[in-house]
Amino acid sequence: MDFDQDTKALEPGPFGRAMRAHWLLDPTIIYLNHGTVGATPKQVLAAQQALREEMEQQPARFLLRELSALSGPSDRALPRLREAAQAVARFMGAEGQDLVFVDNATTGVNAVLRSLDLQPGDEILITNLAYGAVVNAAGFVAQAAGARLVMVQLPFPVSSPADYVNRLAQALSPRTRLAILDHITSETALVLPLAEMAACCRAAGVPVLVDGAHAPGAIPLDIPRLGVDYYTGNLHKWALAPKGCGFLWAAPERQQSLHPPVISWGLGQGFVQEFDWVGTKDPTPFLAAPAALELMQAWGPDAMQAYNHHLAWQAAVWLTARWGFELPAPRAMLGCMATLPLPASLGSTREDAVRLQYALLYQHRIEAPILCLGGRLWVRISAQVYNTLEDIEALAQAIDTHFVSIVHF
User: Fold this and answer.
1) Rounded CA separation 206/112 (Å)
2) What number of other Cβ atoms are within 10 A of residue 46's Cβ?
3) Distances 9 to 2, 132, 161, 307, 310 between C-alpha atoms, Å
4) Hey, CA dihedral for 182, 183, 189, 192, is it positive or negative?
């Protein structure tokens, strides 16, 4: 392996293969796919299970009197969800009263979209790099209202963040009622210049909804400083929380008109009350989020992010050089994931991508997404603190095996 000398900095310290002991991940699998649905550490799962057991001892007390502000009399100073919301909000520089829990970022996006008062001819602006489910939701809401979904074409690969800011500015119009922007894109794994893009929208009087599914825990995050109107994200990816743990933050002036996708007993009683009770469900993913953040604090969030970013960047530099390609983005636009081009001989269709992804899994025991973008195949690498340079080397060798077999065939 011919990584540069700076790579040696990854080897010492608390992170690396030994960290696998904190997860239930199959030890026979090289897992380079943390960004898809996350992986919850054992310690956090234990905290969640303790909450479940407490809930089942007195379910009515737990859910109907202690969980939310809509509950009956309780001796708790704050409802359980509000305590958890305060801890999560502090982690992202926000206030607890401006944050509510949702199952995932897609649910948060739907809440904002379904709360819009759109008129025929209005426009929702979104980019071609947006997550497919979010595109579907925006298109559905626009069509129902007789509005238009306008898609801004952002190039990938990209040479400078300024390219994206300029293209967004040109696409805004007097009819734009909402701009939906990613913080970190899903397929292309780019950290967008969100504050600058939001400033563009603000200057044009356009509210901004951020899909931050991959951002919490992956990069430093101070939501109020971004200058956006709504921010939704997942805590079950890089913030180590259990599955089904997302949040929605809204600027105070946007909260009154915001409603959850499921209307329930909190209707008309305010932002927090509406979202904190949408019917009987298991709230323990939300309530265990503070335990996940405590674990991150114990490991050191800055150190985790630095390790993951460095590993993703070194993988990008080495693999693109190995396969003879240019880097798809500058270092400032990569967080703890990188989406990298694959040799053209491996295929150019979605069917080819599926074939290669399953070959990696079943023949080489490597879990990594293979994507078809722009008529070629790409591999997206997620770096979490349990990953190492050896995982990247194993992926490279597996890819090369298929490249060689196709060439010789």
Assistant:
1) 14
2) 12
3) 14, 37, 28, 9, 9
4) positive
How many other CB atoms are there within 10 angstroms of residue 231's CB atom?
31
The tokens of 271 are what? 């932002």
Tell me the one-letter amino acid at 367. E
For residue 75, the model assigns a pLDDT of: 83
- Summarised one tens digit per residue, pLDDT across range 134-144 is 999 999 999 99
Give the pLDDT confidence score for residue 73 in this predicted structure.
Answer: 74
Question: What's the confidence (pLDDT) of residue 3?
Answer: 34
| pLDDT at residue 11 in the model | 43
Supply the pLDDT for residue 95: 98
- Residue 401, pLDDT score: 87
Report the pLDDT value the prediction gives residue 2, as an integer from 0 to 100.
39
Q: What is the pLDDT of residues 317-336, one digit of tens each?
A: 999 999 999 999 999 999 99
CB 276 within 8 A of CB 70: yes
Length of the chain: 409
3-state secondary structure the chain: CCCCHHHHHHCCCCCCHHHHHHCCCCCCCEECCHHHHCCCCHHHHHHHHHHHHHHHHCHHHHHHHHCCCCCCCCCCCCCHHHHHHHHHHHHCCCCHHHEEEECCHHHHHHHHHHHCCCCCCCEEEEECCCCHHHHHHHHHHHHHHCCEEEEECCCCCCCCHHHHHHHHHHHCCCCEEEEEEECECCCCCEECCHHHHHHHHHHCCCCEEEEECCCECCECCCHHHHCCCEEEEECCCCCCCCCCCEEEEECHHHCCCCCCCCCCCCCCCCHHHHHHCCCCCCCHHHHCHHHHHHHHHHHCHHHHHHHHHHHHHHHHHHHHHHHCCCCCCCHHHECCEEEEECCHHHCCCHHHHHHHHHHHHHHHCEECCEEEECCEEEEEEECCCCCCHHHHHHHHHHHHHHHHHHHHC
Q: Which residues of the chain have a pLDDT value below 50?
A: 1-12, 406-409
Q: How many CA atoms lie within 13 A of 367 on its CB side?
A: 18
- How far is residue 289 from each of residues 44, 51, 319, 345, 362, measured CA to CA in Å? 8, 11, 35, 44, 33
Residue among 147, 143, 103 at smallest CA distance from 123: 147
**Rounded to whole angstroms, what are the CA distances from 280 to 164, 327, 330?**
42, 48, 46
- In this structure, are residues 379 and 308 in contact, taking their beta carbons and an 8 Å threshold? no
Its pTM stands at: 0.94
